[in-house]
Amino acid sequence: MELLDLAFYTERVIPKLNEGLIESLWLIIPASLIGGSFGVLMGVLRVFGTKWIKKIADTFVAVIRGVPLTIQLMILYFGLPYLPFVKIFLTPYQAALIGFIFCTGAYQSEYIRGALLSIKQGQIKAGQALGMTKLQIIWSVIIPQAFRKAIPGCGNEIIYLIKYSSLAYIVTHIELTGEAKILVSRTFRPTEIYLLAGCYYLFLVTLATWILHALERKLYIPGFGKANS
Amino acid sequence: MTTLLSVKNISVTLGNRKILDNVSLDMHAGDLKVLIGPSGAGKSTLLQCINHLITPDEGEIHLEGKKINTQSNAELCHLRQNVGMIFQDFNLFDHLTALDNICLALVKVRKLSKDEAQKRARKELDRVGLSNRAGLYPAQLSGGQKQRVAIARALAMQPKILLLDEPTSALDPELVGEVMNVIQDLAKGGMPMIMATHQMDFVRSLATEVLFMEHGTIIEQDTPKVLLADGAKTRTLDFCSKLNNLKGCEL
Ligand SMILES: Nc1ncnc2c1ncn2[C@@H]1O[C@H](COP(=O)(O)OP(=O)(O)OP(=O)(O)O)[C@@H](O)[C@H]1O
Ligand SMILES: [Mg+2]
To answer: What angle do CA B2, B8, B13 make, to 5 degrees?
Structure first.
């Protein structure tokens, strides 16, 4: 039976997929950390910024959310070198990473914005009435609450990011999906290879879900965030 | 008698409407002033101007004879530490236990150590009868308990004056008593207070002065004995009897 040809997997498929996995992680981890911070910044600006800052940030998010990621990646990698005045050349890795950071940041900012808006304003007054400074209130009241409210949404976005990181092959950056494609073209055994690559992603998503749930459990507060608390 | 706090000629304008129009009042030791008046009269606005949660367009606040420079954050902070505030809808910090709600400002503003803060917080919780609820979160407390935690939180800062904005009007009727008892004890203990309330038996028995507000000004100002005397021709009595007919409770 071909499917059970163990040497084929251990010698040819798994080492290559593992290489691809490392490349994928090199995209996913920085993109989620930098993109996450970028999203927090954008979310905060969209809520607390001046009128013009809000407008600019809102527009940026609307554009990123309105254009397919595939197109954005192609613009970054294939389009930028042909700009009329400054030609920008990005490596495949840079193009993919920048595309993912913008994309995940824009979506994360939506969740952060929602979380910030849902904090009951009376608590800010209460903090001020106790003599706390704006900064103390933001740090000790707003952020801990907004963070908890944003976790489910932001976690979901990280899970999407894990999966759309496979689009990096569009700009010729070879990660997990890219390695799988190359293997298939060499071995003509798409079924097993794509199934196995799928399992790699499933594993990553499961791991991320588990970490997020652990975080949620650790930060759990009875009744917090329920409509009637 | 030393003046604890003076509010001098405060005005607040929103658009072209005067929400507060040239309001003044003085607080001395032992004063318990009650604000009464129809909805929209400006009671909440006045209370929030006193500790500058709302910045008035004109007027001054003096604390113990010293004018507060509202441009200075340090002076604002000093004012707010000395003037505690209780809100209608409690405004507890949702992510903190009852105990930590009290400790937060003790640590951040009063700069107490965590241990000292907890010790004081427990004492205050005990005073409002909630020592056995220290570890519960706001969502696990009843409205009356939440308001008592809010009172403990304000008292822990050891304010010289307490402002209370309709502290029982968001509560179910059966929970009003437990909160009013705490406030009554404070009043009897001599805590100076300015309180917006329609709890008339409290006003009659403990208020040293009633301020009747309408359209952003104080239009009547005297002891409850005078303003609420049987047959008195005052706006205050008129308003309160209407309120009573509406609610059907004793005056
Ligand atoms: N943020 C605001 N924007 C516009 N108008 C406001 C604002 N806050 C208060 N007002 C207006 O100011 C007036 C005074 O309001 P305030 O809340 O001080 O009245 P109040 O006497 O406390 O009434 P209530 O008994 O309903 O609490 C009202 O007419 C209200 O509509
Ligand atoms: Mg009010």
So the answer is: 155
